[in-house]
Amino acid sequence: MASSRNGGPVRATSSSLTRRSFLRGAIGVAATAGAAGALAGCGGASSNAGTTTEKVLRFGVANPKASFDTQITSNTWGASENVCDTLIRLNPDSKQLEPVLVTSLPTVSEDGLTYTFELKDGVKFHDGSTLTAEDVRYTLTRVLAKQAQSDGYDKIAGAKDVVSGAATELAGFSAQDDRHFTITLSQPFSSFPYLLAQFYASIYPHEACEAAGDSWGTGTDFIGCGPFKLESNDDSTEVVLTAFDEYHDGKPAIDRVEVHYIDDGNTRMMNYTNGDIDLCFLDTSLLDQYKSNDDVSGQIVYYTPAATQFLNINLNDESFQDVRVRQALSLAINRQELCDTILSGAAKPCSAFIPSSETGYDKSAEVLPYDPDQARKLLAEAGATDLHLTAQVRSQDQAVMVAIQNYWQQVGVTVDVQVIDSGLWRESRSNGSLSLTLVTWSTLSFVGVEHMGSYFRSDKAKTRSSFYDSPAFDAYVDAARSSQDEATQLDNAIQADRQLVRVDYGTIPVDWPQNPYVLREGYEGLEMLVDPHFRKVTYNK
């Protein structure tokens, strides 16, 4: 659910902005705001043979230099979400699941193990073939065989045999005919439907994917049954998507999406202000500059990804053994000030671990308190009045860690901040040698209990330099995962969050990233959910 790739920062602080750098898991809103009159150029429409006006959206993004096949990489800009469809999707506004390729959400057996689906009739792939249950079987089996970087698919019965190579058929999948099938799990797992909304589970046409072989996802060897067809791809400068006339949910209002590869963040924004592109993500390092630009400031939009930045503390380290020390370190951080200054307003202070973009968010929780006097008192009670810590972070996290260093210095805690290579950081976190670091952890499922559980459940925490081991937390997570009752799931997710953050202080949440992008006036209906979704975009100017 929360990808192991997502240990990197969600906010973009460098010139490269791909799925890996703003990952993903994100919920956004349609946006049209501000005055674009002073901007040079004109977006939205282009002439075709001098007679027909096409509605075009031009999207500037860094070249990921990677396949569009999300079963082997997650480092793309969202090609799979616009070319392909999943069985079900997560509504970015309501955060409720909705049927896409199926007639309704699946029915679930009383024991929570068997999910029953019915495909829509007559759904077409871009090559003219018709979607069948065989394509679904093929896709899910391939996800496992390719060992996509995602948690949870191994809950399907027989999945581990496919992963290990002991089987080529997925035992938990059974097709009754071309449109009816069941998926059986090896154990109850209430988050399973959310997995089917992830881009990992984009449905591929069996015959076309097999025929393409290793070239699938490169060039134009990538088709689906989504709202847009892949018309051209030169791999280096531009990708063109065109609206699919036979899309099962109705042809999109935008005729064409032009994806322009522009690696440098400054250059992307220059292209935007010159009117050469209509949409791009705004690096937070440039945010203050463009917030003060009257021609652009009104067109900046923020969306809340399913991500949390937190201090990962190694509970095997003697410095962190006393819960009063961990509580004091949390109390010493002025999260609101940090978000407003160091993060340029592109973040919200944490009140818990689970952000508002996910299920399990605690609406009643207030921002984690800032109380340096109480922090000093707790440190004194714990006999930690001369505490010296070492924080090893990656370069993109240095500014935030230095700010926290200054907050802690004010309560008598000294921190040596060391910047280390990302490769060494990953290795050190895996082998348990990091004492203190900053992590931004994201989820593609938008399920809060999976977001937490994938990092802090005891079986996971020991592999991430955390070593948090709370039977109470594990029990709450397991109860939420096994229940089919939404109220029970929510209650246990909130209790797990409180146990982790406000009782055990097993980690110290800092902020929830707010990722900015710019969208030209006249465009409406853009959805942000991990990546941009263009199916509902309209242009009216």
TrEMBL record:
Alphabetical list of PROSITE patterns matching this protein: TAT
Pfam families from the UniProt entry: SBP_bac_5 (PF00496)
Alphabetized CDD domains for the sequence: PBP2_NikA_DppA_OppA_like
Domain of life: Bacteria
Location in or out of the cell: Cell envelope
Transmembrane regions listed in the UniProt entry: none
Residue span, Solute-binding protein family domain: 97-459
UniProt keywords, alphabetically: Signal, Transport
Family membership: Belongs to the bacterial solute-binding protein 5 family.
PANTHER family xrefs: PERIPLASMIC BINDING COMPONENT OF ABC TRANSPORTER (PTHR30290), PERIPLASMIC OLIGOPEPTIDE-BINDING PROTEIN-RELATED (PTHR30290:SF10)
Name used for this protein in its record: ABC transporter substrate-binding protein
Species in which this protein is naturally found: Olsenella absiana
